[in-house]
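User: Structure please.
Assistant: Input sequence and predicted structure:
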Amino acid sequence: MGFGNKQRLPWWRSKFILWLFLMLPGLMLLLGLVNRRMDYDRLMHVTGELSARFLVFSLVATPLIMLFPKRKFPRWLVRNKRYFGVAAFVYGLFHTTIYLIEVPISQVKKEFFEFSLIIAWISLAIWVPMAITSTDGWVKRLKATWKKIHNWGYLAALLAFTHWAFIHYQWKPALIHAVPVIVLQGYRWINIIINKEKEI
């Protein structure tokens, strides 16, 4: 099963090199954890930021290719956006796992319905079926339903960025990551609405 990148490319542009690039930060974090060079706060911070940044790459791909259809980078990004989406989920899952391991279960239960955390749980729950159905096989099997499932990713992203802003009131970094997505996706949806009106 694949993620849609079947084009023959030089080895240095292959999907395996990209996978290695996406995995490398996680491997370094695990090594730091094993060597006790990474504390809980640092791990939570880095995994959360990595998840957000890979999410940004997956969400800006389509608007960028609409703006710059002949540029190489947007085409490369569109071809690989599912990889970035899955990487965002994996680092988000890593982030959640660290929290569940380090924080006592009594505290997890107590904090569960706090606004900054409940939206994170909802975001993760939305991501799960998206991650599972990210392969070519699922795209073919689900057909039109696949797109409906993955459209929920916009809500998951909004909740993830809101979680980031509220969890320690880190509005500035959250906005720096969220604003490009909001602007570019706004451009995309305005174009979709205009084109639909033209067809009518």
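The mean pLDDT is 89.
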